Amino acid sequence: MVAVTEPAAVLTIAWLLVLFVVAWRYRFGPLPSARAFVLVAAALAWLAFSLLQLADLLSPPYDDALGAVSGIMLLAGAWFALRWWRTR
Q: How distant is the alpha carbon of residue 12 from its chain centre?
Protein backbone atom coordinates (compact mmCIF):
# COMPACT_ATOMS: atom_id res chain seq x y z
CA MET A 1 0.00 0.00 0.00
CA VAL A 2 1.29 3.45 -0.91
CA ALA A 3 0.90 6.28 1.58
CA VAL A 4 -1.07 9.28 0.35
CA THR A 5 1.69 11.59 1.61
CA GLU A 6 4.18 9.98 -0.77
CA PRO A 7 5.33 12.66 -3.28
CA ALA A 8 4.38 10.49 -6.26
CA ALA A 9 0.85 10.01 -4.90
CA VAL A 10 0.49 13.73 -4.19
CA LEU A 11 1.64 14.59 -7.73
CA THR A 12 -0.77 12.07 -9.23
CA ILE A 13 -3.69 13.48 -7.29
CA ALA A 14 -2.67 17.04 -8.15
CA TRP A 15 -2.50 16.38 -11.90
CA LEU A 16 -5.83 14.55 -11.82
CA LEU A 17 -7.27 17.62 -10.11
CA VAL A 18 -5.77 19.86 -12.83
CA LEU A 19 -7.40 17.70 -15.52
CA PHE A 20 -10.75 17.94 -13.72
CA VAL A 21 -10.51 21.74 -13.38
CA VAL A 22 -9.54 22.17 -17.04
CA ALA A 23 -12.46 20.00 -18.16
CA TRP A 24 -14.83 21.91 -15.88
CA ARG A 25 -13.63 25.34 -17.06
CA TYR A 26 -13.75 24.23 -20.70
CA ARG A 27 -17.30 22.90 -20.38
CA PHE A 28 -18.84 25.52 -18.09
CA GLY A 29 -16.42 28.44 -18.17
CA PRO A 30 -14.61 30.75 -20.54
CA LEU A 31 -11.65 28.46 -21.37
CA PRO A 32 -10.96 28.48 -25.14
CA SER A 33 -10.31 25.19 -26.87
CA ALA A 34 -6.71 25.97 -27.86
CA ARG A 35 -5.75 26.70 -24.27
CA ALA A 36 -7.65 23.63 -23.06
CA PHE A 37 -5.70 21.44 -25.51
CA VAL A 38 -2.33 22.68 -24.31
CA LEU A 39 -3.30 22.39 -20.63
CA VAL A 40 -4.60 18.85 -21.07
CA ALA A 41 -1.48 17.88 -23.02
CA ALA A 42 0.81 19.18 -20.28
CA ALA A 43 -1.29 17.67 -17.50
CA LEU A 44 -1.36 14.25 -19.18
CA ALA A 45 2.41 14.30 -19.73
CA TRP A 46 3.06 15.17 -16.09
CA LEU A 47 0.46 12.65 -14.97
CA ALA A 48 2.29 9.96 -16.95
CA PHE A 49 5.52 10.94 -15.23
CA SER A 50 3.97 10.83 -11.76
CA LEU A 51 2.32 7.47 -12.50
CA LEU A 52 5.73 6.07 -13.41
CA GLN A 53 7.07 7.30 -10.07
CA LEU A 54 4.11 5.71 -8.35
CA ALA A 55 4.69 2.44 -10.22
CA ASP A 56 8.17 2.19 -8.67
CA LEU A 57 6.53 1.90 -5.26
CA LEU A 58 4.26 -0.99 -6.21
CA SER A 59 4.91 -4.70 -6.48
CA PRO A 60 4.95 -6.68 -9.71
CA PRO A 61 1.95 -7.06 -11.73
CA TYR A 62 0.71 -3.67 -10.55
CA ASP A 63 3.84 -1.77 -11.49
CA ASP A 64 3.72 -3.11 -15.03
CA ALA A 65 0.02 -2.27 -15.38
CA LEU A 66 0.60 1.25 -14.08
CA GLY A 67 3.54 1.61 -16.47
CA ALA A 68 1.26 0.67 -19.36
CA VAL A 69 -1.37 3.18 -18.21
CA SER A 70 1.38 5.77 -17.98
CA GLY A 71 2.42 5.09 -21.57
CA ILE A 72 -1.18 5.47 -22.72
CA MET A 73 -1.43 8.79 -20.84
CA LEU A 74 1.75 10.01 -22.51
CA LEU A 75 0.42 9.09 -25.96
CA ALA A 76 -2.87 10.84 -25.19
CA GLY A 77 -0.92 13.91 -24.09
CA ALA A 78 1.02 13.86 -27.35
CA TRP A 79 -2.26 13.63 -29.27
CA PHE A 80 -3.64 16.67 -27.44
CA ALA A 81 -0.38 18.54 -28.10
CA LEU A 82 -0.76 17.75 -31.80
CA ARG A 83 -4.37 18.99 -31.72
CA TRP A 84 -3.18 22.19 -30.02
CA TRP A 85 -0.46 22.63 -32.65
CA ARG A 86 -3.02 22.34 -35.45
CA THR A 87 -5.50 24.79 -33.89
CA ARG A 88 -3.13 27.62 -33.04
A: 8
